[in-house]
């Protein structure tokens, strides 16, 4: 059973945060990755503790996504280990469908995260062979317990995800925008922008879909494009583009599959460069493997770009009052600016380990391998492979199995020690 150790400073007062020593691993994050690890550990009868800074599971999906969001891949590629989606769910579940699935998943495996625990520091205590994780209580903590608590375990699973903190571009004059300015994490619906000229900075899946949503709500969207982007149809020949790619990759090299995808995409969509969306030199899957950046899977925005309802503009050079100046020298006025500029991991801000993660919060070994999810001294990461929910599920299975084997060894050793007394 977990033990709690009270500590004091050298003067014997001002108690240091209580340390709770755990039997099983500490999992940071109660999103899909953390839930997948917990469920699989449950299957192995291994105890665990999930630390979650928000007040509910899947905080990103619950509080920082737009209303019309659907999974961009078919549900078959987005299932967590052990439990599939209900058969009556659509091929591309809505965000509300997905949240229902996650809550049912957590309930099925009796997963009860400790909510309102924001991890502020995690480090490896080599003499004790333990990971020590310090948390601070957030506003969502519903108890009067200490504001700071330390947890200790031989194993630490980082499952806080690649999308923890918003990324805002460093553009001159951004702080002087007179109209409404927000990050895509704050966007819910285009209704509030009806009749307004809206600049969307960013042309990924979120930026494209927000432009579509703005159009459908009577707004006038302009999408700022900084660099090349691959736009692919969501389906080819009546099947998922992603599914086709996965099947082809079993037999063909990435570059050959990329050539096929682009050939078909050009047949279906036409030349995207004619409308301001130049394709990068590298293929979509090659870019995905190298950077983790996904191609855009079109769900309707492309036809509105071709019709001129969504206007493509260059990279923003600076903002001034109600206007934006672009790198081509043109200036335009807008009522609102939405920054669809993505997220980043916050792991470097609290994990004191320079081996598994880089300074920008990405694992040093991005390429899928048998050990890319495992670091030194019982440190693991799940959901950082750049392969979305599919990769998170695979990481979770391997991580939980590895921890289960080591946990069983400790139980056998503990039993042997008791018998020898």
TrEMBL record:
InterPro entries: Auxin_biosynth/cation_transpt, Flavin_mOase-like
One MF annotation (Gene Ontology) recorded for this entry: NADP binding
Class of enzymatic activity (EC top level): oxidoreductase
Catalytic reaction(s) noted: indole-3-pyruvate + NADPH + O2 + H(+) = (indol-3-yl)acetate + CO2 + NADP(+) + H2O
Record key words, sorted: FAD, Flavoprotein, Monooxygenase, NADP, Oxidoreductase
Cofactor: FAD
Any Gene Ontology biological process: auxin biosynthetic process
Pfam family, one: FMO-like
E.C. number: 1.-.-.-
Family in the record: Belongs to the FMO family.
Protein name: Flavin-containing monooxygenase
Species per Swiss-Prot/TrEMBL record: Zizania palustris
């Amino acid at each position: 059973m977990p033990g709690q150790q009270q500590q004091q400073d050298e003067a014997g007062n001002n108690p240091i945060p209580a340390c709770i020593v755990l039997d099983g691993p500490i999992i940071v994050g109660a999103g899909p990755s953390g839930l997948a690890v917990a469920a699989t550990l449950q299957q192995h009868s291994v105890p665990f503790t999930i630390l979650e800074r928000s007040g509910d599971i899947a905080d990103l999906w619950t509080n920082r996504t737009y209303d019309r969001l659907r999974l961009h891949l078919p549900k078959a590629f987005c299932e967590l280990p052990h439990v599939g989606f209900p058969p009556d769910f659509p091929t591309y579940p809505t965000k509300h469908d997905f949240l229902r699935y996650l809550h049912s998943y957590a309930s099925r495996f009796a997963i009860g995260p400790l909510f309102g625990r924001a991890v502020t520091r995690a480090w490896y205590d080599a003499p004790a062979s333990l990971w020590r994780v310090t948390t601070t209580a957030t506003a969502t903590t519903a108890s009067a317990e200490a504001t700071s608590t330390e947890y200790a375990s031989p194993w630490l699973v980082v499952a806080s995800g690649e999308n923890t903190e918003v990324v805002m571009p460093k553009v001159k004059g951004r702080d002087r925008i007179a109209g409404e300015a927000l990050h895509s994490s704050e966007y819910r619906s285009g209704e509030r922008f009806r009749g307004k000229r809206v600049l969307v900075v960013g042309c990924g899946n979120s930026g494209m879909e927000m432009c579509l949503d703005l159009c459908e709500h009577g707004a006038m969207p302009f999408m700022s494009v900084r660099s090349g982007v691959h736009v692919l149809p969501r389906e080819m020949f009546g099947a998922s583009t992603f599914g086709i790619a996965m099947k082809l990759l079993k037999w063909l090299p990435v570059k050959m599959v990329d050539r096929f995808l682009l050939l078909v995409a050009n047949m279906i969509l036409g030349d995207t460069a004619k409308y301001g969306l130049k394709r990068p030199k590298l293929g979509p899957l090659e870019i995905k493997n190298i950077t983790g950046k996904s191609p855009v899977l079109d769900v309707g925005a492309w036809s509105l770009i071709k019709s001129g309802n969504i206007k493509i503009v260059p990279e923003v050079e600076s903002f001034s009052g109600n206007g934006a100046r672009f790198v081509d020298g043109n200036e335009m006025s807008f009522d609102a600016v939405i920054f669809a500029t993505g997220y980043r991991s916050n792991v470097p801000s609290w994990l004191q380990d320079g081996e598994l993660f880089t300074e920008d919060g990405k694992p040093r070994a991005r390429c899928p391998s048998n050990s890319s999810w495992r670091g030194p001294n019982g440190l693991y990461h799940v959901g950082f492979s750049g392969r979305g929910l599919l990769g998170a599920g695979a990481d979770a299975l391997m991580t939980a199995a590895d921890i289960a084997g080591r946990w069983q060894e400790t139980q056998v050793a503990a039993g042997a020690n008791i018998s020898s007394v």
